[in-house]
Amino acid sequence: MANVSLQHVYKVYQNADGKISPNAKPAVSDFCMEIEDKEFIVFVGPSGCGKSTTLRMIAGLEEITDGEIYIDGKLINDVEPKDRDIAMVFQNYALYPHMTVYDNMAFSLRLRKVDDIKRAKDGTPILDEAGNTIPIKRKYTKAEIDEKVQEAARILAIEEYLGRKPKALSGGQRQRVALGRTIVRQPKVFLLDEPLSNLDAKLRAAMRSEIIKLHDKLGATFIYVTHDQVEAMTMGTRIVVMKDGFVQQIGAPQHLYDSPANVFVAGFIGTPQMNFFDGHITPDGVITFANNQRVVLPKHVLQSFDLDKIGSGLDIVMGIRPGDLKLVNEPVADGGVSARVSVIEALGNETIIYADMDKDSDFSLDRTPTTITASVKVRNNPARKDEIYLAFDLECIHLFDKATELTLKK
Ligand SMILES: Nc1ncnc2c1ncn2[C@@H]1O[C@H](COP(=O)(O)OP(=O)(O)O)[C@@H](O)[C@H]1O
Ligand SMILES: [Mg+2]
């Protein structure tokens, strides 16, 4: 069992003189989350948004400025890192180059003490005068260490490399050894900070599925940090999207994709990125956007939005994913737009069309208020400068309050 609870956690870094400036911006603000046992949680967000800081506070490598962190219901704010039953893997895992793979994995176990009771040579417990066992701390035996290293090597399929030095391994094998060093300790919580970002794209994809399998095998709680939304979407049971030290949204990958809470999450999750248009909506669902383009929401779609907030009309940001646009032969009144193609990317299984609703555009790739991206599956692709008609899947339109950038979904 290992659930992790973060309650109103803040981090403000100190200056070099050890003081906190009165106007210092927190690196992490009011982080609240209940992580259940055996979850695979991914912290995702742009560089500098506070992912590593949060992870390091859980690990005990960074002091918590305010708030509480509990592991298994136990307040750990002031517990030493080594006593937290966690293990951490970093992007820059440093293996000891002069040691074999076996010794790299055995190393931390040789330093560790385990709880045991005082025993005679034959293993029978020695009792005190009151007849109780006597608790002691002792080192792991050679046999115990060997069992743990062999077990980790088996799980990671690196048994045949145990005698090699790190320099005789590929990048992926080295990364597996780095994971092995944490597995041998059998921690309740694994913390991984961008462990794959030094690997090439192909290896990264392979290691991604290995880590997912590892999580299944170990039955431990994983917290994984990445700036890569694809990694987040494919690995997490739940994802935490962060920006500027603030949690933006927590949810299952599909939930974040379907129901982003704000413009930032909508734009961060999903490739190609969601199209956004500044616009205005009336209470009867007429949306004008991007130089007098217009779509009208069917009643049942309109009712899925907060009509109180729309009131007598509201300035909005409208979002539509490229995959929710369809290439059609005729203009669609109140449900689509016409545009001129700027660039075509034919990927084989799909085609990404970059187009401009302003017919007099200069066909550059720059995003303007009238550019629109569609991802379509067609065999006869349009050509550059063709006029095309795009139909909106009106059920998939996202609306955000322009002032707050928060979703208008009920
Ligand atoms: N040791 C530190 N001292 C001062 N500021 C730091 C320190 N570490 C990180 N920061 C700042 O805290 C913010 C969050 O950093 P970090 O948690 O490393 O972000 P991420 O891992 O999401 O890229 C950034 O603005 C960063 O510059
Ligand atoms: Mg980081």
Describe this structure as you would to a colleague.
With about 400 residues, this protein is an alpha+beta fold. It folds into three domains: about 1-85 and about 185-270, P-loop containing nucleotide triphosphate hydrolases (Rossmann fold), CATH 3.40.50; about 95-165, no CATH class; about 275-400, Nucleic acid-binding proteins (OB fold (Dihydrolipoamide Acetyltransferase, E2P)). About 25% of the residues lie in helices and about 30% in strands. The chain is built from ten helices and 22 strands. The strands form five sheets. Strands 6-9-10-3-11-12 form a six-stranded mixed beta sheet, sandwiched between helices. Strands 15-14-13-16-22 form a five-stranded antiparallel beta sheet. Strand 18 and strand 19 (about 350-355) form a beta hairpin. The two termini are about 35 Å apart. The chain binds adenosine-5'-diphosphate and magnesium ion. Adenosine-5'-diphosphate binds near residues 27, 47, 49, 51 and 52.
The best one-word shape is elongated
Query: At CATH's second level, what is the architecture of the largest domain?
Result: 3-Layer(aba) Sandwich
Q: What ligand molecules are bound, each kind once?
A: adenosine-5'-diphosphate, magnesium ion
Given this structure, which CATH class of the largest domain is correct? Alpha Beta
Number of domains: 3
Gap from first CA to last CA: 36 Å
> How many helical elements?
10
Mean pLDDT: 92
Report the radius of gyration as a whole number of Å: 27 Å
Q: What structural category arises from helix and sheet content?
A: alpha+beta
Order of strands side by side in the largest beta sheet? 6-9-10-3-11-12
Task: Find the count of extended strands (DSSP E, 2+ residues).
Answer: 22
Q: In oligomeric terms, what are we looking at?
A: single chain
Query: Could you state the CATH homologous superfamily of the largest domain?
Result: P-loop containing nucleotide triphosphate hydrolases
Share of residues in helices: 10-25%
Percent strand equals 25-35%
- CATH topology name of the largest domain, in short, is Rossmann fold
Q: Return residue spans where pLDDT drops below 50 for at least 5 consecutive residues.
A: none
Largest sheet: 6 strands, mixed
